[in-house]
Amino acid sequence: MNIEFPDKFQPLFKPSRYKCFYGGRGGAKSWAVARALLLLGASKPLRILCAREIQDSIQESVHKLLSDQIDALGLSDFYDAQQAKIYGKNGTEFSFIGLKNNPTKIKSFEGVDVVWIEEAATVSKRSWDILIPTIRKQDSEIIITFNPELETDETYKRFVLNPPPNCITVKVNYSDNPWLPDTLRDEMEHSKTTDPDAYNHIWLGYTKKMLDGAIYAKELRKAEEENRFTNVKYDPSKAVQTFWDLGRADKTAIWFVQIVGFEFRVIDYYENSGEAIGHYMKHLQGLEYVYGECWLPHDAQSELLASERTIEQQMRGAGFKVRITPKMSVAHGIDAARTMFSNLWFDADKCADGINALRHYRYEVDPETRVYSKNPLHDWASHAADAFRYMAIALKEPKLKGLNKPDSKPKMLTRPVAGAWMG
Predict the structure, then answer these.
(1) What DSSP designation does 168 have?
(2) Which of 108, 141, 235, 319 has a 20 to 30 A CA-CA distance from 35?
(3) Are strands 344-347 and 263-273 parallel, antiparallel or unpaired?
């Protein structure tokens, strides 16, 4: 079978541990990888995992793209595209997964030959740290495709700024696609004429320093300039306060903070989704920290459908000291966070995913008028940002202000007994 590919995608047929294709819109990155994997899978049996950071249903995966390309390549007699998987007659198998919500399931794919991560710009540090060592079969490959957003995003840092050994990194734009549709070409020309900055980002694949409408843009820039994203060590003499945003179907996000003098030292961050409260209590108990108070949002006082006790009650029962964050409007909470920012120091490694969420936390923008809403956009970054906002509200409380004095000593707490949690 003689199938043409743009020159930039020839590395798809050469052995390499990592193959990264990034750039602007219209470069045919997804189209090329889908075709290449189908052809390779037809030539020999392969286990191929198609992943993205968040995939709540098969409709959000590349299943439809692969199915369409099977028809376009004339491979319908060879591949059987079922509802959740695609099988080849020679044993080739395509599976689909969301990285963020399935950290345990990811580890069951250690025998795959190829992993393709689509829309990889938002893949978190935690997801990469789980996925990469899992894919360890001899000569296995990891293929990455994405349109860049920020140069501080984990995927961009790993595979463009500091690519690992045995990595082929290729920038692909619309100009490399000989089959660019006229519709996209017209959009590109209009953007090039009317909005050069958007053209550079959307069509040429350049990163932005900050996203449009970024809520903490000024504060994050200043923290960067003052080197407050650094190595912040845990101080065993100080209690760790935790600040939560709760979710079950959505993410639960937790910031870990120590108050030392006039500094708020953000030493850790954790998030997950689809887990009961017991999972998060067990996570806390597995860390070395001695805890002060766990600050929960008001919904922690609501009864759970599957339990006779609220989250607040379950945590108290497990030995945690719990307080409920005072109610405050989103706008006032954001103002409190901005005021607090100059006193914050972040551990750059342990808080990487939380910091990245803060960089992506932004106001909604009307796509036609480009006018910013007063409401933050609700997306994957919201949960970390909400927990951060609750942290700022809680740190305004008189009791915690007292801990902010250089001569004061917070009461030390013993760690809850391991296993004393419910879920």
Answers:
(1) E
(2) 108
(3) parallel
Instruction: Give pLDDT, residue 367.
Output: 64
394-408 pLDDT, tens digit per residue, is 988 655 554 544 333
pLDDT of residue 274: 79
Name every residue whose Cβ is closer than 8 Å to that of residue 77 and which is 6 or more positions away in sequence.
none
CA quadruple 361, 366, 370, 376: dihedral, nearest 10: -20
pTM: 0.79
Domains and their CATH numbers in the chain: 7-203 (3.40.50.300), 217-403 (3.30.420.280)
Report the length, in residues, of the chain. Answer: 423
Which tokens go with 399?
A: 């009791």
User: For 238-362, where are the alpha helices, taking DSSP H only?
Assistant: 277-285, 311-317, 330-340, 352-360
Q: What is the pLDDT of residues 98-122, one digit of tens each?
A: 988 777 778 778 889 999 999 999 9
Tokens (6 digits) for 307: 């339990």
The DSSP H or E segment spanning 34 is: helix 29-43
Position 78, amino acid: F
Asked if 94 and 143 count as a contact pair (C-beta separation under 8 A), the reply is: no
Q: Which residue has the tokens 């945590």?
A: 315
The SS3 call for residue 229 is: strand
Percent of the chain with pLDDT over 70: 90
Strands 47-52 and 114-117, bridge-based pairing? parallel
Rg (CA), the chain: 24
- Positive or negative CA dihedral for 261, 239, 273, 96? positive
278, 307 contact by CB (below 8 A): no
Edge-to-edge order in the sheet of strand 229-230? 229-230, 344-347, 263-273, 251-260, 240-245, 291-296, 321-324
Task: Retrieve residue 3's tokens.
Answer: 């199938």
Cα distance between residue 115 and residue 85, in whole Å:
14
Here the tokens at position 368 are 């036609």
Secondary structure of residue 268 in the 3-state scheme: strand
Structure tokens belonging to residue 318: 């497990």
241 has a pLDDT exceeding 90: yes
Structural contact between residues 252 and 244, judged by C-beta atoms closer than 8 angstroms: yes
Determine contact, residues 81/68, Cβ cutoff 8 Å: no
- Candidate from 6-15, 154-163, 412-421 with smallest mean pLDDT: 412-421
pLDDT tens-digit series, residues 5-40: 888 999 999 999 999 999 999 999 999 999 999 999
